[in-house]
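User: quick one, sequence for these tokens?
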């Protein structure tokens, strides 16, 4: 009997249906809802915020159904990078993969910093570096031994967030009808100023940008396809059910906040992880009579931060492993432990995360700020890559005479859905800080800082294309066979 060495082993399919569902659900529920929803309502009013989140929700639905069709037909751990390479251009896949790896690697120190800030609520005089180190050890332990550790961590982290939102919705509805607060609020706050929408179209557009960040992370479920027990069944189910749950959670929560808190309340604008006491969730719980609302929400925010950090370590290590398998990264990162963990890819991700964390403490943190701006655009660039890949995937599938009825999961409204998502992603990418171009003199330094992610992505794309002399793959030549490594 021949025994495989660790470097010859592959990733293992140990993620169960409950893991996959919670990973997809928890990926898009975090500080974007618990904290940033307040500033969205303050900017565009409750009606404007609802419109913005609905628009982004539709875009995400199109992105996720596109991903679902490809991930169920070809469940590989490289996911977006693999699909972009096979159905668009190897250079495009190279750029998507490295861009995604870098953005999630840079997210690790961000979440470590956020976690230390949250802990200051209970331990105001403690060391931020100490808490960051503790959280980093926790994230390493969750990811180092098996994919099951990551799955279990996400299952419980996401579970806490879901329970909190359900409790918030129940309490909010009772308050709206006066059962808890003693008097019904009616639509007085929702229509304050004569309309639920304020600031006009540009305010809604600004809120769309915020909503986009809130939904970032939903695509992580696509990377789990290569380690899911039954991806053909579990991935479509997660995408179908989780999207609607997320959309309902966001829409209903924002509606409740708009009904109970006037959009003019300055607390909505001041809400942040630095000040959990004025989170819209905390305000509502306090008004309902929960004395420990701030402490409880602080704990929930901490689970959100750890959840994001847990996903960051998992996602970045899997993407680097996939790049190495396709010879787009050093081969050493393709090594897998006996438990199916790409250990070298994980270690280098952690080390670079530490470098990024330390850079935020040196000088005025300019380098770190530029890194965060690259991250800010990454989700939209990834979604753009997914929808472009799916558009080409479906066209190539038909061009090669394949039967659409044989697809395990078939995305609806093709080709309009991916085309609409492509246009929306492009608009959001280039509209990140549209105020720069309005009014007086253009601040080129601010433009370069805000949009640095675009030239970095293009440099990766066309640099690899020039070096390797790659071409756009013809539809009749697209390879539908899964990678040998998977």
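Assistant:
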């Amino acid at each position: 009997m021949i025994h495989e060495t660790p470097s010859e082993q592959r990733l293992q399919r140990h993620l169960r249906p409950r893991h996959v569902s919670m990973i997809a659900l928890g990926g898009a529920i975090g500080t974007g809802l618990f904290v940033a929803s307040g500033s969205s309502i303050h900017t565009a009013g409750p009606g404007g915020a609802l419109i913005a989140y609905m628009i982004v929700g539709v875009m995400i639905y199109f992105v996720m159904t596109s991903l679902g069709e490809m991930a169920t037909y070809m469940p590989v751990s490289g996911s977006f990078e693999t699909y972009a390479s096979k159905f668009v251009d190897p250079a495009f896949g190279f750029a998507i993969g490295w861009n995604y790896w870098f953005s999630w690697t840079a997210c690790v120190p961000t979440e470590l910093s956020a976690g230390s800030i949250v802990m200051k609520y209970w331990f105001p005089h403690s060391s931020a570096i100490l808490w960051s180190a503790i959280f980093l050890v926790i994230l390493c332990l969750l990811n180092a031994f098996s994919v099951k550790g990551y799955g279990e961590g996400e299952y419980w982290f996401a579970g806490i967030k879901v329970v909190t939102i359900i409790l918030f919705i129940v309490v909010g509805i009772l308050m709206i009808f006066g059962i808890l607060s003693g008097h019904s609020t009616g639509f007085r706050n929702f229509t304050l100023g004569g309309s639920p929408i304020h600031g006009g179209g540009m305010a809604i557009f600004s809120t769309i940008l915020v909503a986009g960040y809130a939904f970032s992370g939903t695509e992580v479920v696509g990377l789990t396809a290569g380690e899911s027990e039954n991806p053909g069944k579990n991935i479509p189910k997660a995408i179908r059910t989780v999207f609607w749950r997320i959309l309902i959670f966001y829409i209903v929560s924002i509606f409740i906040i708009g009904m109970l808190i006037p959009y003019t309340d300055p607390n909505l604008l001041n809400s942040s992880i630095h000040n959990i006491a004025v989170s819209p969730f905390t305000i509502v719980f306090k008004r309902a009579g929960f004395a420990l609302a701030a402490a409880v929400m602080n704990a929930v925010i901490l689970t959100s931060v750890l959840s994001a950090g847990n996903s960051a370590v998992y996602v970045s290590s899997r993407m680097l492993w996939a790049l190495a398998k396709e010879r787009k990264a050093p081969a050493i990162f393709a090594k897998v432990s006996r438990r199916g963990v790409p250990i070298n890819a994980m270690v280098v991700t952690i080390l670079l995360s530490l470098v990024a964390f330390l850079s935020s403490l040196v000088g005025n943190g300019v380098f770190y700020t530029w890194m965060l701006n690259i991250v800010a655009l990454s989700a939209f660039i990834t979604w753009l890559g997914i929808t472009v890949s799916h558009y080409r995937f479906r066209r190539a599938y038909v061009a090669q005479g394949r039967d659409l009825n044989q697809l395990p999961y078939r995305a609806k409204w093709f080709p309009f859905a991916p085309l609409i998502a492509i246009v929306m992603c492009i608009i959001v990418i280039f509209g990140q800080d549209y105020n720069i171009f309005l009014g007086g003199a253009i601040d080129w330094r601010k433009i370069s800082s805000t949009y640095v992610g675009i030239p970095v992505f293009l440099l990766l794309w066309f640099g690899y294309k020039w070096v390797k002399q790659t071409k756009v793959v013809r539809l009749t030549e697209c390879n539908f066979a899964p990678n040998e490594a998977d």
